[in-house]
């Protein structure tokens, strides 16, 4: 394997709080270890369209506390084509980039894996997504901040739900995963969480109505994971409206506010450790691996495992929500 001299770093897919902390860690750790660093703007689009600049240690000053990503992010259709990836490779070579660090979610790492299968490029991935849906890592960067944001919102909705004695469906993000909904429900003291992992097997809404939500209270808060499988908050509210008209129902969709904001200490620490571990991985000759955290330790997870395997949700936590909502 040729010696790596220059490392390119990019953020791709949905942004997540803590991405900046990880750009900083990758850049500083790489420079500390004698590498040159290139910042690639707008994810894979920047590779395809040649938006690549030199990065010094100062380029990443004063960003650890900011949400979003200073490198911007994008979704890039061209990178899904062979011609697009060839163009990306040619631009990489023009800039002397020998290795890549890709910070992003499932889709971004799928792209990285495809690219690495066609060209001789060592790539290390860093899981950056609020969804927490990547296999092989206990947490993804941005998840903890999004969870705290959800909790903050639930606390506020609880006041009005309580005053009006209403049933609230609060929809949270997660693509097809229920981590934000389930742990958001525990942190917010909600009556229930409706998540896609379970909706396939049970009619969770019917079960909830049958059990009467919280018997000692007339208000209730239910966290719903966005997904065609759960029906989303609007879908569930519509059902309640038609099937159980005795409930006064309202819906709040938290949407993209979950993706912004100051990263929590936990996300900054995770992002910093993962960024540093990505450079260590390249120094060790690793390629095509994602950095994961396993019981507080940094581990290398082959792309094939991280992408192809579905991360299990702890179903026991649903019972906890149920028991604590009596
Ligand atoms: P996330 O990383 O947040 O899951 P996306 O699923 O939107 O975000 O993927 C981000 C980008 O990764 C896509 O816009 C595309 O450029 C690239 N990508 C995703 N899947 C593939 C693939 N199968 N082949 C090549 N590139 C891909
Ligand atoms: O993957 C992160 C995420 O925020 C998902 O939770 C959500 O389904 C999706 O991205 C929304 O994407 P967009 O940025 O296209 O609205």
Give the CATH level 1 class of the largest domain: Alpha Beta
Strand content: 15-25%
The helix count comes to 12
Strand order of the largest sheet: 3-2-1-4-5-10-11
Strand/helix succession? EHEHEHEHEHEHEHHEHEHEEHH
If you consult CATH, what is the topology of the largest domain? Rossmann fold
**Cα-to-Cα separation, first versus last residue:** 61 Å
**Largest sheet report:** 7 strands, mixed
Radius of gyration: 21 Å
Bound molecules: adenosine-5'-diphosphate, 6-O-phosphono-beta-D-fructofuranose
Number of strands: 11
Quick summary:
The chain is α/β, with parallel strands linked by helices and 326 residues long.
What does this structure look like?
The protein is α/β, with parallel strands linked by helices and 326 residues long. It has 2 domains: 6-142 and 263-308, Rossmann fold (3-Layer(aba) Sandwich); 144-259, 3-Layer(aba) Sandwich (Rossmann fold), CATH 3.40.50. The chain has helices at residues 19-32, 43-48, 82-94, 106-118, 143-164, 179-188, 196-199, 204-211, 232-243, 265-283, 303-308, 316-324; strands at residues 6-11, 36-40, 52-55, 99-104, 123-127, 167-172, 192-194, 220-225, 249-253, 289-294, 297-302. The strands form 2 sheets. Strands 3-2-1-4-5-10-11 form a 7-stranded mixed β-sheet, sandwiched between helices. A 4-stranded parallel β-sheet has the order 7-8-6-9, with helices on both faces. α5 crosses α6 (179-188). It starts with 5 loop residues before the first strand and ends with a helix. The model has no long low-confidence stretch (mean pLDDT 94).
């Amino acid at each position: 394997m040729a010696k790596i001299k220059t490392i390119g770093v990019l953020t791709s897919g949905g942004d997540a709080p803590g991405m900046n902390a990880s750009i900083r860690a990758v850049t500083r750790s790489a420079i500390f270890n004698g590498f040159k660093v290139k910042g690639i703007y707008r994810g894979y689009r920047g590779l395809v369209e040649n938006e690549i600049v030199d990065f010094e240690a100062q380029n990443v000053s004063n960003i650890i506390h900011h949400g979003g990503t200073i490198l911007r992010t994008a979704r890039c259709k061209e990178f899904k084509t062979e011609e697009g990836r060839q163009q990306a490779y040619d631009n990489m070579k023009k800039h002397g980039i020998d290795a890549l660090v890709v910070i992003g979610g499932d889709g971004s790492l799928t792209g990285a894996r495809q690219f690495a299968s066609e060209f001789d490029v060592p790539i290390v991935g860093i899981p950056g997504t609020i969804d927490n849906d990547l296999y092989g890592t206990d947490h993804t960067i941005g998840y903890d901040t999004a969870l705290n944001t959800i909790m903050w919102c639930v606390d506020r909705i609880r006041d009005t739900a309580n005053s009006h004695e209403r049933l609230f469906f609060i929809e949270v993000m997660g693509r097809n995963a229920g981590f934000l909904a389930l742990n958001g429900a525990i942190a917010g003291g909600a009556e229930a969480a409706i998540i896609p992992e379970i909706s396939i097997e049970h009619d969770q809404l019917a079960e909830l109505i049958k059990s009467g939500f919280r018997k000692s209270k007339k208000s209730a808060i239910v966290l719903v994971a966005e997904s065609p499988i759960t029906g989303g908050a609007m879908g569930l509210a519509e059902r309640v409206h038609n099937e159980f008209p005795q409930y006064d129902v309202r819906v709040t969709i938290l949407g993209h506010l979950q993706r912004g904001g100051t990263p929590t200490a936990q996300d900054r620490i995770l992002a910093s450790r993962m960024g540093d571990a990505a450079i260590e991985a390249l120094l060790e000759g690793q390629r095509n691996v994602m950095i994961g955290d396993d019981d507080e330790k940094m581990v290398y997870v082959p792309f094939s495992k991280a992408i192809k395997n579905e991360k299990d949700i702890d179903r026991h936590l649903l019972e906890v929500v149920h028991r604590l909502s009596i």
